[in-house]
Specification:
Oligomer: heterodimer
Structural class of chain A: alpha+beta
Keywords (chain B): Membrane, Transmembrane, Transmembrane helix
Number of strands of chain A: 6
Distance between the termini of chain B: 48 Å
Number of domains of chain B: 1
Strand order of the largest sheet of chain A: 1-2-4-3
Radius of gyration of chain B: 16 Å
Helix content of chain A: 55-70%
Protein name (chain A): Glycosyltransferase RgtA/B/C/D-like domain-containing protein
Helix content of chain B: over 70%
Shape of chain B: elongated
Order of helices and strands of chain B: HHH
Organism (chain A): Methylomonas denitrificans
Strand content of chain B: under 5%
GO molecular function, one term (chain A): pentosyltransferase activity
Largest interface: A-B, 39 and 30 residues
Strand content of chain A: 5-15%
Largest sheet of chain B: none
Main location (chain A): membrane
């Protein structure tokens, strides 16, 4: 079977299942503001992701996350998704015809821009053959692979504490692994959800009063943001939070006819915000304040017009309290499975990591002083990408249009104020964390007012119109060329998709890195203990990952003054294989083996690490740990006695 | 919308805006495939002018 079917088959099944369950959940909120058919399906898809991710989390905690159960859940939902989708297909020809007419009537430059933007977005699928990010090889892809193989969720060895992060995205990837997607291909789902994000951003733009040009420009800014494109295929799960956040923004922006419609709208916005918080807890800092601004933007405007009227303050206060309560209550619903998971696995509810003080005071000051520039040109440690330069390029135009138009109550202004509020909260609390992925949805809010200004200006000045289209086209071109080795590997992706199931068409670094782990996979028996002198583990077999060094082995450390102690511990803990990075402190131990230890090289040491088989003759200590298969595919490290 | 459509952009505003857009897109093109500085204004300007002079010398 070619890669194409084994990759896109499970993706399609899972995606339609998400749509199916999402439609069922949304049908509970009949009197809510509706979008057009395509956007409704995308909202349902994102809702389904959250619901299924939470459900899988519970199933994995119980230890029954098996393929028959997964298929039993997914297939009826897939059928519902497909059935609903095909029952609306009658509307497709007229929609296509309408869009084709608009396209034909547009000027050549706008036509070219539309084609370039769509091609750029679609070619993002080729990121699946790119290099896997280090964090994904360590945790974000490794955990789902293990969950799928062991049918249970337990803390990943060496990342026991880190397992307290929200695992909504990881559980969806686990489902895709369980549906037999090959290699690391479930990471392609990040690209699929970014398509959903693109549709939602267009819907937000339309809701904010932007026309087709403005909607297209929002899409261009989204697609040329490396803070988005980098995550299409690198295996990190940061995009999930942003995509959960976008429907929340859409519902917060909606005009509601009556109280019930408003209550439903706020509830749905709250549920999506809750999913976003689970997916990325850092959204609580910058996204939550933005949501409060958006939810009450219209009320605040009405109040500012009627503030001299008696009772208007009380009415505003009553509205704020009432809907804030509904919103917070709705946020709590998606948090329940997440908190339950942390309580069961780690006996805690929420865990935070480090003090987020990554840079010196001087660098932090420079970050704050240049806040207008680093999101676009910065490359700080762990920043992972920039925003589209078009946002910076047309920021002065936004100021100009706001000043000249004086439309301070428009939704585009509301989005700008909401974004600025969230950004300010982030700067105050985390001035030295210049990392867009931690509050990506908040930063994406700025694309809409920027596109609003660009669209308006394009209609009133033909020079500006030319500048906008040419600058956008140049940005797309430069962006494509800049990321052609990391993201846009179209030719290699074609070979990968149409070829047999092998990983030889991945980026060469990934292939060479995988080869080292593959040598261990081919040599080590089931449940063998591999001592990992590395953070990375994704390409190991799932049974081997479960038995690698974790919390029980924390005491093992190499001391050049007592090299034998290290090897005694290695023997006592039952390790019979070793993967060693060149930079690991224990690397020196390989040159200091006592005479009762034999470290046989099974893959030569290189920049990608090396693999070794360990054998012991007459060891001077007793074995303390061994491994046992406690359920099908689930391996535990247990006492040898 | 009508007010917006009646709005005029002056020659100076147009010139300033187009110049700014050209500078930003040029900087974006210059930065590709490079190890970026940390995005601070002084480093951006230094790189901008050094790239301009390099282009001139070529």
């Amino acid at each position: 079977m070619s890669h194409f079917i084994s990759i896109f088959g499970p993706l399609a099944i899972f995606s339609f299942a998400c749509v199916g369950v999402g439609l069922l959940v949304l049908s509970l909120f009949r009197s809510r503001p509706q979008e057009d058919c395509a956007v409704e399906y995308v909202i349902a898809f994102v809702m389904g992701q959250g619901v299924l991710g939470s459900l899988f989390l519970v199933l994995a905690l119980i230890g029954i996350f098996t393929k028959p159960l997964l298929l039993g859940v997914l297939l009826p939902l897939t059928f519902i998704g497909l059935w609903k989708g095909f029952s609306s297909i009658y509307a497709l020809p007229s929609v296509l015809q309408k869009n084709a007419l608009v396209f034909i009537k547009a000027s050549f430059l706008w036509q070219l821009l539309a084609v370039a933007a769509v091609l750029l977005l679609l070619s993002g699928a080729s990121a699946v053959v790119g290099r896997i990010d280090g964090d994904a090889r360590a945790f974000y892809l490794a955990l789902p692979k293990v969950v799928a193989a062991s049918h249970r969720l337990i803390p990943l060895p060496a990342y026991e504490g880190f397992t307290s992060v929200g695992l909504l995205a990881e559980m969806q990837l686990a489902a895709l692994f369980l549906l037999d997607m090959p290699g690391a291909s479930p990471r392609l789902f990040s690209w699929v959800i970014s398509l959903a994000g693109a549709v939602l951003l267009i819907a937000i733009s339309r809701n904010a009063g932007l026309g087709r040009r403005g909607q297209l420009l929002s899409l261009v800014m989204l697609s040329t943001s490396s803070a988005v494109a980098y995550f299409w295929g690198q295996g990190k799960t940061d995009l999930f939070a942003a995509v959960f956040a976008l429907p929340a923004v859409l519902y917060a922006l909606k005009d509601c006819d009556n109280r019930e419609s408003r209550r439903n709208s706020v509830t749905i916005a709250g549920v999506f915000t809750g999913f976003a918080l689970v997916a990325k807890l850092s959204y609580i800092v910058a996204f939550l304040p933005s949501m409060f601004v958006l939810l009450f933007w219209k009320d605040l405007n009405v109040y500012s017009l009627n503030r001299k009227t008696i009772g208007s303050s009380q009415l505003l206060l009553k509205t704020l309290i009432k809907y804030s309560f509904v919103f917070v209550l709705a946020i709590a619903i998606p948090l329940i499975p997440h908190l339950l998971k942390n309580h069961i696995l780690l006996n805690t509810l929420v865990d935070t990591y480090g003090n987020h003080h990554y840079f010196s005071d001087e660098t932090t000051r420079r970050i704050v002083y240049t806040y207008l520039f680093w999101p676009f040109f910065g490359s700080f440690w762990a920043q992972y990408g920039n925003l589209s330069p078009l946002m910076l390029a047309f920021f002065p135009l936004l100021i100009l249009m706001f000043c000249k138009a004086g439309q301070w109550s428009s939704k585009a202004t509301g989005l700008f104020v909401a974004g600025a509020t969230g950004l300010l909260a982030w700067i105050i609390l985390f001035p030295g964390v210049p990392m867009p992925r931690y509050f990506l949805a908040t930063l994406l809010l700025f694309t809409v007012p920027a596109a609003w200004a660009m669209e308006r200006a394009s209609y009133i000045d033909r020079w500006i119109n030319c500048t906008i289209t040419l600058a956008s086209l140049a940005t797309i071109l430069v962006f494509y060329v800049s990321w052609s080795l990391e993201v846009f590997r179209v030719a290699a992706a074609y070979e990968y998709f149409v070829g047999d199931q092998s990983e030889k068409n991945l980026q060469i670094d990934e292939v060479l890195s995988r080869n080292v782990y593959e040598s261990l996979n081919q040599n080590a028996g089931l449940g063998a203990r591999v001592y990992l002198g590395s953070y990375y583990r994704f390409w190991l077999r799932p049974d081997l990952i479960q038995c690698t060094n974790g919390k029980k082995d924390e005491g093992i450390a190499f001391d050049s003054k007592q090299p034998e102690k290290f090897w005694i511990q290695i023997y006592q803990h039952g390790f019979t294989y070793m993967f060693m990075d060149n930079t690991n402190p224990a690397f020196a131990a390989l040159n200091a083996t006592p005479n009762w230890v034999r470290a046989e090289m099974i893959y030569p040491q290189s920049g990608y690490g090396g693999a070794y088989r360990l054998s012991f003759s007459n060891p001077p200590a007793d074995l303390k740990f061994t491994t046992r298969e406690v359920a099908f595919g689930a391996w535990d490290v247990v006492s040898a006695k | 919308m009508n007010k917006l459509l009646r709005m005029k952009i002056t020659l100076f505003e147009r010139f300033a805006l187009i110049s700014w857009v050209v500078v930003v897109v040029y900087l974006f093109a210059v930065f590709r495939d490079q190890t970026h500085p940390d995005g601070t204004l002084d480093e951006l300007l230094k790189l901008f002018f050094s790239s301009l002079s390099a282009a001139y010398l070529q």
